[in-house]
């Protein structure tokens, strides 16, 4: 963790570079995230709503209809992919059954098939044949999957430490079952297969967490802050970024100010005597990225604040 200050020219330059990197980061819409619950642990997938809207809408239709719940990871190829979304196990008949599918969708290949990305399965020789089947890339499969059958549409990526769960699934032994090769099974050697032998999955859309008290809004490009101004009271407000060189400067949008009645943890503070605004933490893309950001009121007429220092996580 590096502490930046205005004590010397070198830290000043570092502060500017680091500040610009987070304040001017990609301002895309918030992505939908789904949680994949499996027999061997859970992981989350961030969906590329803007890049592959047709594919994401199709995938979410299966999620929201519940058709992915009770499905299986039915294919696992070492150092290549794990695949699911197409079959479930009927315990009463002891048969592998197919998921009810909607009409196939238009291919939207845009993103390379690198490790951790999630893509749609489809029929050979038909780029526009994807329905419910999906897979996670275990390796960099660009050379193979990006150049055949119109390119396999990547519509999301495993986030956080989710690939540890994916790798655990990929480590299971595989068998040929119901005519399907490379079928991963858990704690199985031979004989009758039961539900617990499968890598069973369910998928649900994750609810958006409550916003942090101080965060960078990637949709609007605004710095949203909750402030305790002492005798002046509590309020939430937004700052626009008006400059990054030679100093990072933010300007208060008066129309955004909302008076609050209760304080929150990690609230920012403003000292009217010194004109200093301090943010204990700043969240970027859902994670704490900076601590102890200090801004000084540098233009009282424009309500502009200049970044003095911060600590990068």
How would you portray this structure in words?
With 313 residues, the protein is mainly beta. It folds into two domains: 129 residues, no CATH class; 173 residues, Cyclophilin. Helix content is 13%, strand content 42%. An eight-stranded antiparallel barrel has the order 2-3-9-7-8-5-4-12. A hairpin with a 2-residue loop joins β10 and β11. The relative contact order is 0.17.
List the helices and strands and how they pair.
Elements (H helix, E strand, L loop, with lengths): L1 E3 L4 H15 L9 E6 L2 E7 L5 H13 L5 E7 L3 E10 L4 E4 L18 E4 L13 E4 L4 H4 L8 E6 L2 H9 L3 E4 L2 E5 L15 E6 L9 E3 L4 E7 L5 E10 L5 E12 L7 E4 L4 E9 L2 E13 L4 E9 L1
What labels would you give this structure?
disordered N terminus; Cyclophilin; 4 helices; mainly beta; 313 residues; seven-stranded mixed barrel
Beta fraction of the residues?
35-45%
Helix content: 10-25%
Mean pLDDT: 89
The value of Rg in angstroms is 25 Å
| Total number of helices | 4
CATH topology of the largest domain: Cyclophilin
Q: Biggest sheet, strands in spatial order? A: 2-3-9-7-8-5-4-12
- Biggest pleated sheet: 8 strands, antiparallel, barrel
From the coordinates shown, what is the CATH architecture of the largest domain? Beta Barrel
Structural class label: mainly beta
Low-confidence stretches: 1-29
CATH class of the largest domain: Mainly Beta
Order of H and E elements: EHEEHEEEEEHEHEEEEEEEEEEE
